[in-house]
Amino acid sequence: MSNQSRDDDNKNYMPSVTFAPNTANELSFDASNAPTIYTNSTSNQNKSSTLNSIPIETAGIPDYMIFSIVNIFLAGIVMGALAVFFSMHTKKHKKAGSVEAAKKWSRITLVFNIVITCISIAFIILIVVSIRHLR
Fold it and tell me: Of 25, 26, 27, 2, which Cα lies nearest the Cα of 15?
């Protein structure tokens, strides 16, 4: 491809800024060739989904993924994997923009993580006390 044709292609996407002929202090802007910029508004959610982004409405809803990963080591692989599954389900609803479902699964994930953490800590304390009692 020649340099001339590349320059022509770049001109199609670049807005033109020129000085007005009568006054040197004014700028005129031609936005007819400017590229379209997409935001996270509701009308452009389908276009921004290819960016693997989370909509603004659900961005503040926690998915507790780190808490779930810690529970893999604390509560065992089965219960920890179930907690990770709940976290992934929460994240799926967040990406879809479903606020109510994301909040619901976020609460379920938090409660499940707290319950299995408490059970695991109680089990560890029970084991430590039992070992000390046997000595």
Answer: 27
